[in-house]
């Protein structure tokens, strides 16, 4: 019996290897180009991956690419929790935390208003609203893992990742100039950068381009938004379980293993002082998993299918981004959070 199981496992591993090797190679190429040109690695992984779509459509790579787009994706999201500790989040204070919770809720809610006006469905509204509100590409991938899938889920996920990554890059350059022109202090600029830019890397880049104090504030604010991810995922799972889309998927999604891993790492980092080198290594592994998963999603998606989504998709993401930006600036003027 054991020998048979080992043989089955070996055969499955052999079938997975070509696809995993392809996704890993694309991710490595994206990492090299990203570091060489200072551009978003995930965007390179998407674009390069789509060039190899023909290898997923036919050939031995399908199973391994599918594994990378699902299991490795969830592993990368789960490992994100190592960067967060409750003591870091406490530095925001009660008022700052409430403002950020309100901004996240408002942004997600705006998606459900904007998307139907542009002819898009609730799945896309949740996917884009969560990505803009929380942590960009990572949030999009995590939300896509728990909502009921249809024939457009992967295409919409890929588009959302591409859109929020591109907008984050633009915001990294434009937002510090905008906030300075509006007369905000360095600490206020750091709060706004952390509260409005989608991806963590661009938040760090924009924050420290203002000053060290702004960069530290931006990082803490962004970590709080990242910490909202499991809260939003649990809320989504509960709503889906109670609604018409409940079913088996909704019940399983109540506490998927990668969410448990995320919360466990947050709790561990809060009660035990983890070595900085270990945190850096796990963070690097998490990012590597996400880049490999993005590469796999790119391989699974044809460019023709992606271009068929229309301008309405981009308009939804841009409008949600503007809602978050305007609401954050207004909140900082109204509430004394910094």
Automatic annotation (TrEMBL):
<feature type="transmembrane region" description="Helical">
    <location>
        <begin position="315"/>
        <end position="335"/>
    </location>
</feature>
<keyword id="KW-1003">Cell membrane</keyword>
<protein>
    <recommendedName>
        <fullName>Sulfate exporter family transporter</fullName>
    </recommendedName>
</protein>
<dbReference type="Pfam" id="PF03601">
    <property type="entry name" value="Cons_hypoth698"/>
</dbReference>
<feature type="transmembrane region" description="Helical">
    <location>
        <begin position="37"/>
        <end position="55"/>
    </location>
</feature>
<feature type="transmembrane region" description="Helical">
    <location>
        <begin position="223"/>
        <end position="240"/>
    </location>
</feature>
<keyword id="KW-0812">Transmembrane</keyword>
<dbReference type="GO" id="GO:0005886">
    <property type="term" value="C:plasma membrane"/>
</dbReference>
<feature type="transmembrane region" description="Helical">
    <location>
        <begin position="67"/>
        <end position="86"/>
    </location>
</feature>
<feature type="transmembrane region" description="Helical">
    <location>
        <begin position="284"/>
        <end position="303"/>
    </location>
</feature>
<keyword id="KW-0472">Membrane</keyword>
<keyword id="KW-1133">Transmembrane helix</keyword>
<feature type="transmembrane region" description="Helical">
    <location>
        <begin position="252"/>
        <end position="272"/>
    </location>
</feature>
<feature type="transmembrane region" description="Helical">
    <location>
        <begin position="159"/>
        <end position="179"/>
    </location>
</feature>
<feature type="transmembrane region" description="Helical">
    <location>
        <begin position="125"/>
        <end position="147"/>
    </location>
</feature>
<feature type="transmembrane region" description="Helical">
    <location>
        <begin position="191"/>
        <end position="211"/>
    </location>
</feature>
<dbReference type="InterPro" id="IPR018383">
    <property type="entry name" value="UPF0324_pro"/>
</dbReference>
<feature type="transmembrane region" description="Helical">
    <location>
        <begin position="12"/>
        <end position="31"/>
    </location>
</feature>
<comment type="similarity">
    <text>Belongs to the UPF0324 family.</text>
</comment>
<feature type="transmembrane region" description="Helical">
    <location>
        <begin position="98"/>
        <end position="118"/>
    </location>
</feature>
